[in-house]
Automatic annotation (TrEMBL):
It comes from Sphingobium lactosutens DS20. It comes from the Bacteria. This is Metal ABC transporter permease. GO terms for cellular component: plasma membrane. GO terms for molecular function: ABC-type transporter activity; ATP binding; ATP hydrolysis activity. Keywords: ATP-binding, Membrane, Nucleotide-binding, Transmembrane, Transmembrane helix, Transport. Residues 54-288 form the ABC transporter domain. The keyword Oxidoreductase does not apply.
Length: 306
């Protein structure tokens, strides 16, 4: 028995270590498919974030170098501002987020944060500077408190509760059978899409990163939940540089700049009102979604993804 026990212990330890080291990997679940290896350069410095200005300059990228997906993408998100990325399915929106996390190295051009090339700094410091609220977070089979605390090692119960309050999930947690000690995940209490998103928001708030990536849910939340979550997201993005990967257009109206991607190219850019006036692809998408918004929600779609 002892012989069996040791390897299992070791396995448990390795598992916990990996788990601790992979906070962002876990959070990025919805964004990653099969990340290739990127390596830190020898003696790479850590990223020194001053304000959090994010800049893409003539970025060319393909998962397969033979098939380019992004054909020269350039934009700047000044510190504290919000950029929304919209466009049809497959346009390359999530790819931009993956590149910012440096899950892949680009073929040419540059990506910088506060003027530092993200390929030149350590991956750890890069990922520590970026928080993500993924569209569908995977919860650990652990307590709800643990799931939030994962945003920052050593967070106190008071800090966890403060962020849960800010993410508007504190009252819901208090209503659970064992409060913050209630087990969630596959083997515990299942949370709805909106609840999981709030946990993701709380976790990100605890991490308190200068740069935020919001990967907007593709699945429909009921409209009250959606409005509440949008209010919280607007709050947390106020003082941070934010990139919203918008699969729908509901969160982009207030963005400082919107870029419209189509087949890996920016085909339009500007603020919401300008783009509606321009009467191009964005205006068409907006008009189509307005029709969908006004249409009655089909049975079973409301508050989906439980
Ligand atoms: P959606 O709104 O449907 O999520 P998107 O605009 O986010 O779409 P991306 O996920 O960035 O689109 O995909 C852009 C292109 O890259 C697509 O043609 C897709 O097939 C391709 N692609 C995405 N991930 C990979 C991958 N891991 N390996 C190879 N090609 C990929």
């Amino acid at each position: 028995l002892a012989q069996l026990f040791r390897p299992l212990d070791l396995l448990g330890m390795v598992y916990r270590t990996i788990r601790q080291g992979l906070i962002d990997m876990e959070a990025m679940y919805a964004l990653i498919d099969t990340p290739t290896e990127v390596a830190d350069r020898a003696g790479a410095p850590t990223l020194a974030v001053t304000g959090g200005t994010v800049q893409f300059d003539q970025v060319h990228f393909g998962y397969d170098p033979q098939r380019e997906i992004l054909h020269g993408i350039s934009f700047t998100v000044p510190a504290g501002r919000t950029l929304a990325i919209v466009g049809p399915s497959g346009a390359g929106k999530s790819t931009i987020a993956r590149i910012l996390f440096r899950f892949y190295d680009i073929q040419s051009g540059s990506v910088t944060i506060d003027g530092q090339d993200i390929a030149a700094v350590t991956q750890q410091s890069l990922r520590a500077a970026i928080g993500i609220v993924p569209q569908d977070m995977v919860l650990f089979n652990d307590t709800i408190g643990y799931n939030i605390a994962y945003g920052r090692e050593g967070a106190s119960q008071a800090e966890i509760e403060a962020t849960a309050r800010a993410a508007q999930i504190h009252d819901f947690i208090l209503g659970m059978p064992q409060g913050y000690d209630t087990r969630v995940g596959e083997r515990g209490l299942k949370l709805s899409g909106g609840e999981k998103q709030r946990v993701a928001i709380a976790r990100t708030l605890l991490k308190d990163p200068p740069v935020l990536v919001l990967d907007e849910a593709t699945s429909a939340l009921d409209s009250r939940t959606e409005t509440e979550i949008q209010t919280v997201l607007r709050d947390i993005s106020r003082k941070r540089t934010t990139l919203v990967v918008a699969h729908r257009l509901s969160t982009v109206v207030d963005a400082d700049e919107i870029i419209v991607l189509d087949q890996g190219r920016i085909v339009e850019r500007g603020a919401h009102a300008d783009l509606v006036r321009a009467d191009g692809l964005y205006a068409t998408m907006w008009a189509r979604q307005a029709t969908e918004r006004d249409a009655p929600v089909a049975e079973g779609e409301n508050g989906a993804d439980r």
